[in-house]
Specification:
There is one protein chain. By secondary structure, this protein is of the alpha+beta class. It is 21% helix and 25% strand. Helix 3 runs parallel beside helix 5, helix 4 packs parallel to helix 7 and helix 11 packs across helix 12. The N terminus is likely disordered.
Amino acid sequence: MTTSLAPSRRAVLKGAAIAAAAAAGSSVFRTFDEEAAAAPAHRGVFGYGVASGDPTGDSVVIWTRATPPAHRGEPVATPGSGRGAPLRVHWQIARDRDFSRVVDQGVVVTSPRSDHTVKVDINGLNPYTRYYYRFRAAGDVSAVGRTQTAPDTRHRTHALRFALVSCSNYTGGYFGAYRALGKRDDLDFVLHVGDYIYEYGNGADRYGPIDLVGRRDAVPDTETIDLEGYRLRHALHKADPDLQAAHRRHPWITIFDDHEVANNAWKSGAENHTPGTEGAFLRRRRQAYEAYLEWMPFRLPEQQRVPHRGIRFFRRFTFGDLADLSVLETRQNRSAQIGVGPGSVPGGGFIPAGIAEVDAQLADPSRHLPEPEQLEWLKRGVEHTSRRWHLIGNQVILTPVRFPGAVFGAPADQRLLNSDQWDGYQADQTALLSHLAAQPRRAGDAVVLTGDIHSSWAMDLPADRDGADYTPAGVEFVCPSVTSDGFYEAVRAAQPNVPAPQLVATTAQLAGAVTATNPWVRYLDGVGHGFTLIDVTPERVQADYHLTPLPTVARPDPRIDAEVEPTYASSWQTLAGSRQVSATTEPIGERADHPVHRHR
């Protein structure tokens, strides 16, 4: 999440944490202890579990981390350590859990060069088919992972259902959303649109509830700024049993946002990077990307087929004649945010709208969110006429949103915008919205799928807006955070002695003020954490929001309860051809069909 509630919100949280630490004694903040991230390395070769990702109609990537056995007297090859000998790892993929119908197998060698991670891109599989996979090395066998290829059969329409998630801060709470997903049997994949990890440490920069200090701490103890640190932070997440279960159960499609490197990153810097003490930003980013590609079941697309800048991370998936999914990457080449980068108007994050100097920078056509080549690639993709739906995996909100000043203690008639969102890059924003609105109905409808802002939204995409009147260009569904602080936590930090029910009511009032200011915002919840279930049929795309229970006096922060899971809260949809959001009272039901699979 862009943090410009961040400077003020995080300052409040930081101050509260430091004050509590002082009251309790310096032992509240533990000294560096790598146990949480390193423990799985002591539990056998495959202690970090298994994962799969980037499913197409005929391929899928499988992943694990294979820790080589340590000889007597030698330290264990923990993540980021650079220790350990090369290790031969056997892999298998089969049609059944018992592996009586193995369809492919092979051997790879891993080493400290890749932090002993293993990725295999398996091709030649059947579309819309369930498979099982496992790894073997040094006499050990991994857990069995379940995966499936995409429902991408030519001239056929299959069901399509997936979970949309983002913003999973380890120190922010237990991963109940991942636990719930690990129990589901009806997903084609999980789509994570960014902030899979966070870079903050356990000191004054700690991010999350004070109740979890000493119970759920970051590893390494300090901010991640180098390859060893990012590897350890990814290992910490992969050590989490709830995340392991979700990865073991479903393939994932992922893309990073800013916190996989540093908060509010742009092409040459970040709000949370200090060159004088943390080194060169581009070196830090390169090492963060290296760790991400090692520890995630991510397939880099063919570099030469599409014009791009730097490393091409953006890519597209297809699902028969029903839909395609374009996954954007909006950090590597973006211009500096207004109020954050060099030469910009001071303020950062949430800034006033309607000021001539600011508006001129916001509208500058030389400033970009994705590089121009990627934006053109996206625009061409939504022109495809053979599919009903064009899904867009996106990091920050595309919809124009103006926040009433009163929400931030500014004058009531002042309007603010978030300069880290597409609102901060209005030439690109206008170009994309206008392009979507101009597409003929036969070209299908756009559905943007977003994270970042730690709250749940359902919105029309307004083009040519004039007050409450606008041309709908498509819709945007925004998922809640898995754990990261949202509007409720910001309100609670500002009013620490107010009972939870009253804080919930205040948060709802703030959400109501936002929807009143932006008539295209049809739904906004700033309290719950969880995931959004997306179901796609030829007739509609539906988003079901699954959220943690409302805070109560007895349980003011459900995130700190390891047993809490999100449950169904609300449903919104867009009907084919409408390009608008509408309410529905019926949650998503049974799938229309299922992938081919064998239980034995």
